[in-house]
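Case study B.
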Amino acid sequence: MRYNKLVMNKEKNKTYISVHNLIVDFTQINEEGIEEIKTRAIDDVSFDIEKGSFISIIGMNGSGKSTLAKCLNGLIEPNSGEVIVDGMNTSDEEHLWDIRSRVGMVFQNPDNQIVSSLVEDDVAFGPENLGVDPAEIRQRVDHALKQVDMYDCKDKGAHMLSGGQKQRIAIAGALAMRPDCIIFDEPTAMLDPKGKLQVMDIIKELNREGITTILITHYMNEAEQADRIIILKKGKVYSDGKPKDLFSNRRLIEGAGLEMPPLIDLRDKAGLPESATTLEDIICLLK
Amino acid sequence: MIRDITLGQYFPGKSPIHRLDARTKIIATFMFIVEMFIVNNFWGFVIAGIGLFTVIGISRVPLKFIFRGLTAVFLIIAFTFIINLFMFDGRILWHWWIFKITYEGLIRACFMVIRLVLLILGSSILTLCTKPIALTDGLEKLLRPFSRFGVPSHEIALMMTIALRFIPTLMEETDKIIKAQQARGADFESGNILRRAKSLIPILVPLFISSFRIAQELALAMEARCYHGGDGRTRMNEIHFNKEDVVAAVWMVAFLGIIIGSRFIR
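Model:
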């Protein structure tokens, strides 16, 4: 993408997003008209995300993962704590648009994030908001559509596409802003198996091209494809580590109300040691 | 029937009508609508019809698509016809109890129906041959001079874009709700008008709720894509008038003249 390989490698270990002691409360007005805390959605969460990395945030429904995602590009302002994106604080109004142009977001429902009826016009929505030059927008839109393999559909109506295709358009819409980072908030939850696979392939490909990728999901088999998995439970970081460390600890994963990916389930049913966490390891043991 | 409204459904094409500037087409449609009220005899409609079908021919939009818009408003057309048919005094052609059909009423009813049909066909050409975004861009540009009097031209244009975009989505949603209510034993097909109208409530309430939810999600998605009003926004497809628009303008003026002239045909 924008960075050539050399620069990318140099910057790879730099912290891109850092979250410090984040707290988000959902409040409600009680009968006496006083605002009171209803639920604490995010409870003292801290972590750093490195540039170019691929991390998954996983947790049960109501664990706060979507709320956390919305904090990362300033859609939700935290009650306390801070989120620093590339040196800018998301609570700082001045930098808000700058942050959102660098941190793109793809939402769960493919229908409710497409603004324009026509595919290419929708992809152009982001750069148009940024005030990019028309010729440059055209170039970005074409490039983004090619990246998600939807260039042939650029003149089509958005309502004529399948869920998976709509989601790819939404990804293209984020890409057209030339972001450094994209947050995917359960992008495959409403798709059929084929659509899920296609979207996951694109996500992995984009990460290989150097985009910092944050995948919010509740499917373990999607989360395991990341370099690092953060498990949230009741708004707290329950565990944070590499997939293979998690998969050698069944109690930990089940404690968060999650399921092991099918491969690991198979391993445990076959009575193989917990140290085997990849397909290669397991094949090796079985031979 | 719910899927049949063509209004707001773009038919992709590359005809001269498609290529015209949206502003030209909006003005032309507006003129056509006014012209339909200038017409005072059937000759005027014949001329308007010839003009309209020439434009349809040039646009190369299949007739099937153009007439699909009519089926959705069929009830309104039928209603207009019947009201006009029975409500006029004059030479009585047919008489039964308190109902009578007069010669004048019949003429009047046909007149109103033709006017309605031409109005609907004329305006669906606009939406069939113009990308919704181009349409709203055109509208925004046309309204911009009025923004100094407090007309929120950008906001109006954006509202229209979103409304057009979500017509199919809300229709799907309605279909889903109807099926869900039917699965729970709701009955939309029997009973008198009052009962049927009442049975719409279980459709409308969930539809309202879900459209608020959609609106909220969309607003978030737009904010995530840096939407912050019309200030400092650019457009991928800048619209500008060209030679074809001048030709169209000449035709529009000529057509207006002919239509006004048609008032004097006896």
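Chain A touches chain B through 43 residues (CB under 8 Å). The remaining cases will be described in the next quarterly update.
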